[in-house]
């Protein structure tokens, strides 16, 4: 019984949480703001009011996920992280 409960808990067929769904919307907004430019997180927040409401840490975490999945490229210019579309 415990084994079946464990397998059920760790199945990959879970539906996304409300936060994960909201984060997908924010990721789409980030891609929209970046367009073809190379921007820092602060610059993104200045360009878009919706992103300005989020913390730097939140945007940074989402950008890290986007870099890992290949939709965004991170480059360091003068010791500052800049992000652009892949």
Task: Provide structural commentary.
This protein has 86 residues and is of the alpha+beta class. 58% of the residues lie in helices and 14% in strands. It has helices spanning 2-9, 18-34, 41-47, 49-52, 56-69; strands spanning 72-77, 80-85. A two-stranded antiparallel sheet has the order 1-2. Helix 2 packs across helix 5. The radius of gyration is 16 Å and the shape is elongated.
Strand portion, in percent? 5-15%
Radius of gyration: 16 Å
What is the residue-averaged pLDDT? 89
Strand order of the largest sheet: 1-2
Shape: elongated
Number of strands: 2
Question: Main β-sheet: number of strands, strand sense, barrel status?
Answer: 2 strands, antiparallel
Q: What's the helical proportion of residues?
A: 55-70%
Low-confidence regions: none
Distance between the termini: 46 Å
List the helices and strands and how they pair.
Layout: H1 2-9, H2 18-34, H3 41-47, H4 49-52, H5 56-69, E1 72-77, E2 80-85
Antiparallel strand pairs: 1-2
Helix pairs in contact: 2-5
Name the descriptors.
86 residues; alpha+beta; two-stranded antiparallel sheet; elongated
Summarize the structure.
By secondary structure, this protein is an alpha+beta fold. It is built from five helices and two strands, in the order H-H-H-H-H-E-E.
């Amino acid at each position: 019984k415990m084994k079946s409960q464990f397998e059920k808990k760790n199945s990959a067929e879970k539906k996304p949480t409300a936060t994960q769904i909201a984060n997908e919307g924010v990721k789409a907004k980030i891609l929209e703001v970046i367009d073809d430019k190379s921007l820092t997180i602060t610059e993104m927040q200045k360009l878009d009011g919706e992103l300005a409401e989020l913390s730097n840490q939140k945007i940074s975490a989402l950008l890290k996920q986007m870099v890992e999945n290949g939709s965004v490229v991170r480059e360091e210019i003068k010791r500052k992280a800049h992000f652009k579309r892949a």
